[in-house]
From TrEMBL, chain A:
Keywords: Cell membrane, Membrane, Molybdenum, Transmembrane, Transmembrane helix, Transport. It comes from Deinococcus radiotolerans. The chain crosses the membrane at residues 58-76, 88-109, 121-146, 177-196, 234-256. This is Molybdenum transport system permease. It is a multi-pass membrane protein. Residues 50-252 form the ABC transmembrane type-1 domain. It comes from the Bacteria. Pfam families: BPD_transp_1. It is found in: Cell membrane.
UniProtKB/TrEMBL annotation, chain B:
It comes from Deinococcus radiotolerans. CDD domains: PBP2_ModA_like_1 (cd13538). The keyword Ribonucleoprotein does not apply. SUPFAM superfamilies: Periplasmic binding protein-like II. This is Molybdate ABC transporter substrate-binding protein. Keywords: Metal-binding, Signal.
Length: 264, 252
């Protein structure tokens, strides 16, 4: 078979575009990995930001799995009036500008917000706390898991589940040993995407959680506030983010490939 | 020629002498400079646009090669480093004072002493933001006087729940009722803000004077118009507008 040749203009334009997409990230990597990478990495501002990001995203992931999995299961398997509408509404945070999400969170959970007085009475103060960071991440990132998990549960062969049930497995057993393993690659992929989105969260966090080193200042907020004074920490954290982002993409690729093999 | 192309031609070919001017100005100048810009444009036929942000952000942008014609900062720390390298002149055109604000409906912070009270949520600007620098100087002055006991500044700073990047973000957090108190400029207590906040008395001996320098940017494409803007700000009309928005005269 003769391969269609690409005219030189196509090569030039395509190459230009590829260079445009690659150059900024490579520049970040090169500048960030410069001579004092390790020294800057050990500075309190950078370590604090990494620590805050690491443990807030961990909590976000935990809550996402615990609450998102049953919800996704119900949405994928049960028919009920208004399901399509609910489905669309739950997807909303994915397309909502993060700063709008932050305003929504502030007006709902803030002290002056809808639930604020009640929460205050209960002694819970969310705005400007690490909990606010988690809520911001949960709101903007968890829908990614929800989407993937729904697709996962929908793809599981119902006959396999039915077989397990007739073989005497309880409903939990069927879920635990059949549904969960079969949907797992989807769930994992959704989780990785959720983590990446949570790690990069900025707009909702700065509005709802504020920015305080060691408490609510995540990696992205630290990059932003470091830009106000010295470039060093911003460059190092940016380089870290580039590496993390690449790892995430690679992981998702590998997972998708494995999923495709399982499906085949 | 149809009307649309005529309009396009009009927009593309500025009439003689009219220039597009970009002014970088500290966040606290948002209201006053917006009004000054309108008055200046009406008088001269120029078209002035503003970028308001923390002075430290604007300085970084100018150092990074951002195009602007005039730079107005809320302190010298973010202005003088640019003198000679990015900005060609320096004239103090206004001064400002600090003020402590609290949400109108909350009684948690009634006096200056309460800033260091336990369980108080304080929002201030980051140290490199001009108002953040003045805030820390003010707290240190209270500390030195010993009026409110030992470690006043340290205790107050421990109550800080967020360090914001510009003064308007600081004021916003109090107006939303999310912070118990904040330190902003007197000029930030605009008619709009006044509806939602209460001013906590700040004795003059602790207060800090903020001096605002402005100057023409070296790379300005319209240095003449930029100089005209600076003159307008320093002139009778500009000064009257600044006074109306709560700024003090440039000379003490």
């Amino acid at each position: 078979m003769r391969r269609a040749g690409l005219p030189w203009v196509g090569w030039a334009l395509g190459g230009l575009f590829a260079a445009f997409l690659l150059l900024p990230t490579l520049t970040l990597l090169a500048r960030g990995l410069g001579a004092d990478f390790l020294a800057t990495l050990r500075s309190p501002a950078v370590l604090d930001a990494l620590r805050v990001s690491l443990w807030t995203t961990s909590v976000t992931l935990l809550v996402t799995v615990l609450t998102g999995t049953p919800l996704a299961f119900v949405l994928a398997r049960r028919e009920f009036p208004g399901r399509a509408l609910l489905d669309a509404l739950l997807d909303l945070p994915v397309v909502l500008p993060p700063v709008v999400a932050g305003l929504g969170l502030l007006l709902t959970f803030g002290r002056g917000g809808l639930l604020g007085p009640g929460l205050e009475l209960a002694g819970v103060s969310l705005a400007f706390s690490p909990a606010a960071v988690v809520l911001a991440q949960l709101f903007t990132a968890a829908p990614f898991y929800l989407r993937a998990a729904k697709a996962g549960f929908a793809s599981v062969d119902r006959d396999a589940e039915a077989a397990a049930l007739t073989d005497g497995a309880g409903r939990w057993g069927a879920f635990r040993f059949v549904t969960w393993p079969l949907a797992f690659p989807f769930l994992l992929e959704g989780l990785v995407l959720t983590w990446a989105r949570a790690l990069g969260e900025f707009g909702a966090t700065i509005l709802f959680a504020g920015s305080l080193q060691g408490r609510t200042r995540t990696v992205t907020l630290a990059i932003y506030s470091a830009l106000d004074s010295e470039l060093g920490p911003a460059l190092v954290l940016s380089a870290v983010m580039v590496m993390v982002a690449f790892t995430v993409l690679l992981t998702v690729r590998v997972l998708a490939a494995r999923r495709a093999r399982l499906g085949a | 020629m149809n009307r649309l192309t005529l309009l396009a031609l009009l927009l593309l070919s500025p009439t003689a002498g009219a220039a597009s001017l970009t002014v970088f100005a500290a966040s606290s100048l948002t209201d006053a400079f917006t009004e000054i810009g309108r008055a200046f444009d009406a008088r001269t036929g120029h078209r002035t646009t503003f970028q308001f942000a923390g002075s430290q952000v604007l300085r970084a942008q100018l150092e990074g090669g951002a195009r602007a014609d005039v730079f107005a900062s809320a302190n010298d720390a973010q202005f003088t480093p640019l003198l000679g390298r990015g900005v060609v002149s320096r004239e103090v055109f206004a001064r400002n004072r600090l003020t402590v604000i609290a949400p109108a409906g909350s009684g948690k912070v009634r006096t200056l002493r309460d800033l260091a009270g336990s369980g108080v949520r304080l929002v201030v600007a980051a140290p490199n933001v001009p108002v953040g620098e003045y805030t820390r100087r003010m707290l240190a002055a209270v500390d030195r006087s010993g009026t409110y006991g030992k470690d006043f500044a340290a205790r107050a700073l421990k109550n800080v729940v967020s360090e914001e990047g510009n003064v308007r973000q600081v004021a916003l957090k109090v107006s939303l009722g999310e912070a118990d108190a904040a330190v902003v400029y007197a000029s930030d207590v605009t008619p709009t803000l006044k509806k939602s906040v209460r001013v906590v008395p700040l004795p003059t001996r602790f207060n800090q004077t903020a001096a605002y320098p402005l100057g023409v940017v070296q790379s300005s494409a319209n240095p003449e118009a930029a100089r005209a803007f600076v003159a307008f700000v320093k002139g009778r009309e500009g000064q009257a507008i600044l006074r109306r928005w709560g700024f003090l005269s440039p000379s003490p």
